[in-house]
Amino acid sequence: QVQLVESGGGLVQAGGSLRLSCVSSEAGIVFRINGMGWYRQAPGIARELVARIRTGGQIDYAESVKGRFSMSKDNAKNTMYLQMDNLKPGDTGLYYCNWDPPAPDAWGQGTQVTVSS
After folding, report:
1. 22 beta partners
2. Model confidence over 26-50: pLDDT tens digits?
3. Torsion-angle region of residue 28: left (phi > 0), alpha (psi -120 to 50) or beta?
């Protein structure tokens, strides 16, 4: 079973930056060719897709984070990143990585991002 481990969250003031990382226990082709995404869940709100890399390499962002978040993937390291700049209080939530579409058994513990005003 593939494990995905998120890290890099924290408490920042509005306007600050964080860089999230996601490491996959799966080596090789699965990580390289599958689409992957970053998701977040805020209290009382359904989990939403924040950014994704499609199998062809195209990256899509939710409207709310366009121009502020940047997603990248290092296949050699089986690691995915989410650079978050100009953070806003509305970005607060638990951030997860998973495949796109998500695999139900691959949800990790997530990493908490809290943005204070």
Report:
1. 6, 80
2. 666 566 677 899 999 998 999 999 9
3. left
Where is 77: in which H helix or E strand? none
Measure the CA–CA gap between 29 and 84, rounded to whole angstroms.
27
The closest of 100, 107, 110 to 37, measured between CA atoms, is: 100
Rounded to 5, what percent of the chain is helix, strand, coil? Answer: 10, 45, 40
Q: CB within 8 A of 102, min separation 6: which ones?
A: 37, 39
- DSSP string of 34-50? S-EEEEEE-TTS--EEE
